[in-house]
Amino acid sequence: MAEAIVKQAFDLEKVSSQSENDLFYFVESDSVSSEKITALRYSYWKSVFRIFFKKKINWFLLGLFAFILLMSIFFPLIFPYDEMENVINTDSYFLSPAVAMSKYGVSLKWLLGTGPVGNSIFYGVWASAATSIALSFVCATINMALGIVIGAVWGYNKTLDSILNVVYNIIADVPYILIVSVMVYIIGSGFFPFVIALTITGWLGIAYFFRTQVLIIRDREYNLASRCLGTPILTVVKHNILPFLTSVIMTILATELPGYISYEVFLSYIGIGLSAETPSLGQMIERAQTGFISYPWAFWAPVTVASAITVILYVLGQNLADASDPRTHM
Amino acid sequence: MANKKSSTPILKIKNVDIVFGRGRKEFKAVSDASFDIYKGETVSLVGESGSGKTTIGRAVVRINPVRKGYITFDNRLINGKIPEEEKGQFIKALEEELEIASSMPDGGAKVAEIKAAINTVKTGKITFKQSRDIVRKIQMIFQDPAASLNERATIEYIISEGLNNFHLYKDEKDRIAKIEKIITDVGLLPEHLTRYPHEFSGGQRQRVGLARSIVMEPEFIVADEPISALDVSIRAQVLNLLKKFQSERGLTYLFIAHDLSIVRFISDRIVVIHHGKIVEIAETEELFEHPLHPYTKSLMSAIPIPDPILEKNKELFVYEPDKCHDYSVHKPSLVDIGNGHFVYGNEEEIANYKKIRG
Fewest Cβ atoms closer than 10 Å to its Cβ: which of A85, A178, A272, B17? Predict the structure, then answer.
């Protein structure tokens, strides 16, 4: 430290002995170098994933979700499951894990005991989880795609706006559950009829939400500029509107994905969901509800898996929505 | 640039009323505005905030519809409706053009275009094809360089947006060449093409805005306060670019501004507008030497003088329409008092103005 000060004093002495001409000289003005940008290149999606994977919780939840997904896809393939295999043995109904294992021998199958028809809860949970995850992804994809495209055009087109507003006001006044249950009664209760029931009006609310978002950014000056350049509406929607809505889309997706799992569980629970031959978490809960104190394993296992999937999807979705907001990219 | 001026106006604004809202909420932003812009000149539109400058500019690029009157560009109707009594004169002019075009060996496309234009004069309806043609020929530069660029698009996309819409290039190579040429013309670097608008300074962004208009090779540019949002040190750069493009490409500008010192530097003629009414039109030096309308005088007296003593002792001329004019008996109108100088006033005032000027 002291050495540095001494050195500086010495330099100053040397400097003061020089004439002004040696100390100052004219620099050439360089117009090119003043235009250069030294900041690192910015890439939107790279920044999104950088922020997303910086959080440890996201790695953990992704791992957990991957585990649930792999189990639900491959477990039923490796161990084919027939829930009616013990139906003739009435003494196999609602056995606790310990009793089931002592009766049938130690096996993964009896890890969570048996259900109301002597079925394996452990096998059942994975087979049902596959249905729930597939249902939520199919419904969310259809509803989001329809909702975003129609919502964007809805916000942009004045004549379509007045028509769709009337349609929305009529349909939004009818409870969604009622529409879904009526649809299930009309077209049956398999997997795909259920998807149709959930998507026939499900996109309308999302479209309405996006219509409002589009209205907010529609009249910004850069959209006016695009109009002056003669850009067609669809290109404006694709390049000027949707990129601004990525984080909003992620937020909606974060609530939509777990939402359909909840719908399935709820509707199966009240008895109008998926048909009996499609394994589903809602049905497992419904069949075990009578004994959820005396046979807790049959009730809490599907409840836990359903909750785990919804919470994981919701938190992951929210964190992705946060990461896709460019204000967090600094 | 007066020597370049041709005798026929390229843009004609006639008796234009622009009204927002309907019924009781109606608001007349511009009333009975008329002026011509000749090819190759720069006309400035000056006035205070809310006087209707931007509204007129946006009517020219057809964002605002015209309620009454009409705007023509190159003798083609672009906004509003031509009244019955003037239709004949327009059709006559177009038919003369048609004769010349049809005598040319490869004038087929032009003949069809003129026939469509005649039809437009008759019906007042602008076809999709005509509309696209107008969009390409008339471009706009916006006031706020930050708000007028799409934040989520690269500079390359922003500049080539217009080129893509009209397919104004032969192949991909040609497109890249055009973009790189224009970006170096506005003093930026080709390496900026992959960058996003938020990485640029205000002056650089405004030059990007300029580049995306110029690359369309327009004939007419509406510059809506293009330098108001910029740092004083950057203003000259953008103004010089505008002048450079004008002399290189023979562009015509409608320059909207409120800073009179800049207006004096850039424009050939000045249109003064107050509360939606045009009060004075004259060539730049004529207007600065002989401001006649009291509102123009008040604007002139508001120009800051770069001398603290003079500035402090300056007497400001305040314009109060109720005290200055008595329009209860004689109604005012925009009258030519000679030297290409138009002033808004009634008979008595005009006589007075002529005396002062004469």
Answer: A178
DSSP-derived letter for residue A49 is H
| CATH T-level fold of B11-67+127-277 | Rossmann fold (3.40.50)
Give the gap in angstroms from C-alpha A218 to the nearest C-alpha of chain B. Answer: 12
Q: CB atoms < 10 A from the CB of A162, how many?
A: 9
Among residues 186-225 of chain B, which lie with CB inside 8 Å of chain A?
187-189, 191-192, 194-196, 199-200, 204, 209, 212, 216
Cβ distance B182 to B211 under 8 Å? yes
Condensed to tens digits (0 to 9), the pLDDT of residues B202-248 reads 899 999 999 999 999 999 999 999 988 888 888 888 999 999 999 99
Q: What are the residue boundaries of the structural domains of chain B, listed by start?
A: 11-67+127-277, 82-123, 281-357
Lowest mean pLDDT across A289-303, B87-101, B245-259? A289-303
Q: Tell me the CA distances in angstroms from B229 to B142, B197, B200, B224, one per residue in order.
A: 10, 16, 14, 11
| Domain spans of chain A, in order of start | 44-82+122-328
| CATH, range A44-82+122-328 | 1.10.3720.10
Across chain B, mean pLDDT equals 89
CB-based contact, A222 to chain B, within 8 Å = yes
Sequence letter at residue B201: S
pLDDT for A238-257, tens place per residue? 899 888 898 899 989 989 98
Residues of chain A with C-beta less than 8 angstroms from the C-beta of B135: 228-230
Q: Residue A221: which of B142, B191, B212 has the nearest Cβ? A: B142
- The pTM (predicted TM-score) of the whole model is 0.79
Chain A CB contacts of B189 under 8 Å are 32, 35-36
Cα(A326)–Cα(A12) distance, integer angstroms: 48
Would an 8 Å CB–CB cutoff place A53 in contact with chain B? no
